[in-house]
User: Fold this.
Amino acid sequence: MPTMEQLEKLLAAEPDDAFTLYAMAMELAKQARHVEAIAFFDRCAASDEGYCYAYFHKARSQEAVEELDAARATLERGLEVSKRVGDAKAIDEIGSYLAVLRG
Assistant:
């Protein structure tokens, strides 16, 4: 995984690159900077709506900051997108996570 400094340079060069936005969000989440991570997951999804795992990991960050309703809504949206793009693995993983959050 690139360092934060490397990611910032990549982002400066291509501010709408979905992979770089996703990688930045993941790094922020790893550092428990979840509010910032959520914003980058949003930017990733805005750049490429079909980037299914942005929804999954955004929900994890939302759960970490105790925004459970928002996390469920994120997963519901991610499930819709995953079905539309036909990503069976994302459908399974997002659906499973959503089931856990629904209790």
Notes: Residues 80 and 91 are 8 Å apart (CA to CA). The mean pLDDT is 96. The two ends are 34 Å apart (CA to CA). The domain at 4-102 is CATH 1.25.40.10 (Serine Threonine Protein Phosphatase 5, Tetratricopeptide repeat).
